[in-house]
Amino acid sequence: MSLTIYNVLSRDKEVFKPIHKELVTMYVCGPTVYDNSHLGHAKTYVSFDVVVRWLRYSGYKVRYVQNITDVGHLLDDGEDRILKGARRERVEPMEIVERYMRSYFEDMDALGVTRPDISPRASAHIPEQIEMIQELLAKGFAYEVNGSVYYSVERFQEYGKLSGRRIEEMEAGKRVAVRDEKRHPMDFALWIKAPENHVLQWPSPWGRGYPGWHIECSAMSTKYLGANFDIHGGGVDNIFPHNECEIAQSEAANGVPFANYWMLTGTLLVNGVKMSKSLGNFVTIKEALRQYKPEALRLFILSGLYRSPADYSAAALDAATKGAERINIAAQRVRDALHLTALNGPGNAADDATSGRLVDLIDQYRMRFTSAMNDDFNAPLALSALFDMSKDINAAIDDGTASQIVLEHAAAVYSELGGDVLGIVRAGKAAADAGSAERERRLIQMLIDMRLEARKAKDYARADAIRNQLAEIGILLEDGPKGTTYRLRD
User: Fold this and answer.
1) Mean per-residue pLDDT for 282-305?
2) Domain ranges in the chain?
3) Do the beta carbons of residue 327 and residue 386 sit within 8 Å?
4) Residue of 233, 431, 425, 204 whose CA lies nearest to 337
5) More confident of the two residues 136 and 460
6) Above 80 in pLDDT, residue 439?
7) What class, spelled out in words, does domain 4-291 have in CATH?
8) pTM of the full predicted structure?
9) CATH match of 314-421 with 1.20.144
């Protein structure tokens, strides 16, 4: 089954056809690093982490670029967010950037999010932004006024094609106060003249200033992925004006389509309202990780389709915790059963027909998972395949029909799909190699024989001590009519 992606630009699912046969080029708008990241950020970046993981699992090489915004992202009142953070903590702006950029990557690492291949910073790409602005001026898509440069939205006939908005219907100054010097209320800043006391400023052909927010993504994506690339991702709340402005300035400057597929994640809601710092209704990732395991947070995020909104609540996180444990316990039971098989030999766990039926069943779950992920990265459906498989594999282990080949198939599904793709299955305890398994089996048998000798000598205290010490390390002895056997604790 071919991979299909819901393209926000066309408002339809499309078969994914990368520009290059084996390489996928992907850009995702990264964080503005002026404070700790919250669970709304986690929803976006975990979602795209799974997109990248699935593409790589499917055989593609992926060049994943995610920017770091450290200048130019203005609040509604026109103040730079970095400067606001610096004033709040009474430090230099770049101290804020370094502090919260490290904090962001710490959070992503803790959540198991694969790091981007390139994480360019806006402040390190001022020349590229200036060069693109000069190109827009030369082509008549921009104009300079009193040391600032603005993009003329009326010059780009397709402005609004991503968000579906029309220029005449847009509300002027919705995000940032309208400047009187602009020719049209919806024109946006490419370069902003800096006041004398403004800390973040650079020399330019138009005087000292700093770049607008939108130009950084266009300049950096073009530098590292080319003028036309495969996938552009981000949060749906940035569709206007940020993503819309990216398209306008990039296509005007480069003369080719910007990104072929636009993927936008739905918002994270708290009581029906978007989680955000400005509203104060947010939970930081660090706070969440003090309460919940990373795999529980990932499962909560992946329990809904990436492009749909999700409702945060303690009940939802508790349910995700239980769900993650169900899958991880089943995965560990499979590993333990395989380990016992290595110790004791395959035995007669099941006949060939039963094993064949179970192997086919596990392969069907793999196909269900694959079909779901190829249908616009439908993680909720993919998860349902893992939950259903866990129910069946637990039953097979309980009734003794899980043969070695069945266990190996199940272990591969948990490791590859639950671990490598979704990132919710912990690595767990590794099974011993054949030599180690044989040594372990003989040591355990030696202790069982010693216990039997102690019981024959009526030294029950010593026999119980051997049993208890083995139990402490997860080896449970079971006395039966055919002698003493053992199993690993679930």
Assistant:
1) 96
2) 4-291, 314-421, 434-488
3) yes
4) 431
5) 136
6) no
7) alpha beta
8) 0.85
9) no
